[in-house]
Design a protein that fits this description.
- This protein is mainly β.
- It has a single domain, classed as Lipovitellin-phosvitin complex, beta-sheet shell regions (Roll), CATH 2.30.230.
- Strands 3, 4, 5, 6, 7, 9, 10, 11, 12, 13, 14 and 15 form a twelve-stranded antiparallel β-sheet that branches. Strands 1-2-8 form a three-stranded antiparallel β-sheet, with no helix packed on it.
- Helix 1 runs parallel beside helix 4.
- It is globular.
- This is Lipid/polyisoprenoid-binding YceI-like domain-containing protein.
- Pfam families: DUF6263.
- Keywords: Signal.
């Protein structure tokens, strides 16, 4: 029964870390102050012209080009059920979590490089499992203790800084990013190596060329979030109204028998599934305004318990719904408009 105890703890820690870094605004900043106006001794930077999102002929350039100094408040809510069968015993867990952050556009340069910073203002987690293993955590409670608090408390009010080009690709220093994540996670947090890929891939949904309503584009990425995944996503531009694009998303997920660590066990995961939903994008900035996603992943993991020779299986059926919203909290004035 040792594996029955170690599996769920690994599952919810992994689920929390994946949640935090898959949101389109999940990057973090130590300061929530804004830079909307220059001081008397420091004149405001000259406006920078951004590429026009309306390309004419009913085509649109969806690219990352936010205004320098703009600040947004984001909220990501996720609900997950994980139905597992471990050594013939059902082990069902549920997890609700909400992450509130402040996204700040620290810079936007003439060559189209955006620097984003985010403050993780609050995290709330409610995890339930059989056998009294459920836990709750709210970062607003400074007295909170337990494994979830130990893993997540170090992330509050910490800084993660990303430099991205207009296509959403990371153009900063990889070693520097790794050091940032190490600092963000703290001693009891997940291994930074398994969080780097989600950080780098979270903005890679932009099409490589202008698109019209009805057009689709695809992105395929390999990432490691504790288990190596192949993610094949297709995006379709459904509508453009008043500078807001509505995009539908269809994702195929596959682990292809990838190695997986379950507590003290080494296993191979054979999981596959889909994710679908819609997102709205502010075409002026290229930032996501909202999204509603649902995902279903199922399959099994094979492992050999310590001291045994017979391979066993853990059957898994994971269902997740995610809601994201972003609200602009300030007006920036240091970039020019290309319209």
């Amino acid at each position: 029964m040792r594996s029955v105890i170690t599996v769920p703890r690994s599952s919810w820690l992994l689920g929390i870390s994946v949640l935090l870094l898959f949101s389109l605004a999940a990057c973090s900043s130590s300061e929530s102050t804004t830079s909307n106006s220059a001081t008397d001794s420091e004149p405001a930077p000259a406006p920078i012209e951004r590429p026009a999102w309306n390309q004419g002929n009913d085509t649109y350039l969806i690219r990352l080009a936010p205004e320098r100094g703009a600040t947004y408040t984001t909220e990501l809510t996720q609900s997950t059920t994980n139905n597992m069968m471990v050594q013939g015993n059902a082990f069902d867990t549920e997890q609700e979590q909400t992450v509130t952050q402040t996204l700040h556009v620290a810079d936007y340069t003439e060559d189209g490089i955006t620097t984003l910073e985010t403050t993780t203002d609050r995290m709330q987690v409610d995890f339930s499992a059989p056998g009294g293993q459920g836990q709750s955590y709210d970062s607003a409670d400074s007295t909170a203790t337990g494994p979830i608090a130990s893993a997540l408390a170090p992330m509050i009010d910490k800084t993660l800084r990303l430099e991205l080009n207009q296509g959403g690709a990371f153009v900063g220093n990889r070693d520097s990013l790794t050091a940032q994540v190490d600092s963000l996670m703290g001693e009891n947090g997940p291994d930074s190596d398994m969080l780097i890929d989600p950080i780098l891939n979270q903005f890679r949904f932009y099409p490589s060329e202008p698109v019209a309503v009805g057009d689709s584009w695809s992105k395929e990425v390999d990432m490691n979030v504790g288990v190596p995944l192949t993610v094949d996503a297709t995006y379709t531009l459904d509508d453009v109204t008043d500078g807001t694009a509505t995009v539908s998303v269809a994702v195929d997920i596959n682990t292809n028998g990838a190695p997986l660590e379950l507590g003290q066990l080494e296993a191979e995961a054979f999981l596959s599934g889909t994710q679908s939903g819609t997102m709205t994008i502010d075409l002026e900035s290229g930032l996501t305004q909202s999204s509603e996603m649902s995902a279903s992943v199922s399959g099994f993991a094979e492992f050999t318990p310590p001291g045994q020779n017979q391979m066993q299986e853990i059957d898994m059926d994971i269902n997740t719904s995610t809601s994201f919203t972003s609200t602009r909290a300030s007006e920036a004035t240091t970039n020019g408009d290309a319209e």
